[in-house]
Amino acid sequence: MSPEPFSHWQPEQRSSPALAQRLDRLAMRLLPGALTAVGVVLLAAPSGIPGVSALIPGVTMASVFFWSVWRPASMSVGMVFCLGLLLDLIGFAPLGVEAFVFLLLHGIAGHARFGFMRLNFLALWIVFVLLEAGACWLVWFLVSALSFRLMPTAPVIFEGMLAAGLYPPFAAVGTWAHRRLSNPEQHL
């Protein structure tokens, strides 16, 4: 019998992940926000397609809501703020309005995410429609208040209906990407 009964036992060595693994995790974490930003810029670019710029708020709201519920680390507060500022700059809104509204949407989605994750798709879509309608009207109110005149309401209604219609296809693509990002080795 050896004098030290646990001499053969070695504590488990925890090595830090390799640089490539850390960069891969960072890329997967930033991918949803970065793709949303690229999509916003591409939709804002002059393409000759009439009305394509009207898709920008709906795509961004759908992205912020979806990723805030299903993968909040990929849609961080900083990313949501930057997306909101990007929309303010592209849409010529008063600086900070979209950022503030998107941060509210992100906060609500993040706070209630575990309840939202238990809902079926139709119920979650209804929740999104209600939240995005409230967000559209809040943007309208803030822009009206900051410009000291009532803005037209038709664009708000159109934007709300467009965002509601964009969520199902966005959620389908987002669900596929979420599964792919969750376990990328299975899909090689």
Q: Explain this structure to me?
A:
- Helix 1 (19-44) packs parallel to helix 3 (77-91), helix 3 runs antiparallel to helix 4 and helix 6 (121-147) crosses helix 7 (154-182).
- The chain has helices at residues 19-44, 55-70, 77-91, 97-111, 113-117, 121-147, 154-182.
- The mean pLDDT is 87.
- The chain is globular, with a radius of gyration of 21 Å.
- The protein has one domain (23-44, 52-182).
- With 188 residues, the chain is mainly alpha-helical.
- The N and C termini lie far apart (50 Å).
The tally of domains stands at 1
Major pleated sheet: none
What is the string of helix and strand elements?
A: HHHHHHH
The overall pLDDT, averaged over residues, is: 87
β-strand percent reads under 5%
Unreliable runs: none
Gross morphology is: globular
The secondary structure category is: mainly alpha
Main location: membrane
InterPro entries: Cell_shape_determining_MreD
Family: Belongs to the MreD family.
Pfam family, one: MreD
